[in-house]
Amino acid sequence: MKTAILLICAAVLAGCQTAANEVTWNKPGAVEADFVRDRDQCKYETQRATVAMNSGAWQGIGTEIGAAIEKGQRQRELYNSCMTARGYQQQALAAQ
Question: Residue 53: is its pLDDT beyond 80?
Fold first, then answer.
């Protein structure tokens, strides 16, 4: 039950953050298959690097939500660094 509450809160917060920061990644000469491969590899590396951030004893919903937010921020930083290292640049999507 505690995990379900945490996941719901994290999903809501992630959804809010995604809507506020919609971006696309561009790399000169890259085709869709290149992007998908690089995106998936960066996601994998990000998950692998932050898996230990889940460990620990239950310390209360406030602490768990804070930890989930911190983990999400760290994952975004790692993912952005990974994509940049592979030659991609972020471009903000036009508001519709």
Answer: no
Contact 78, 46 (CB under 8 A): yes
DSSP 67-96: HHHHHHHHHHHHHHHHHHHTT-EEEEPPP-
Name the domain count of the chain.
1
Helix (H, G, I), strand (E, B) or coil at 50: helix
Q: What are the pLDDT digits (tens) for 54-68?
A: 666 556 677 778 888
Say what the pTM is. Answer: 0.67
Residue where the block lists tokens 């406030």: 62
Q: Which domain holds residue 66?
A: 2-92
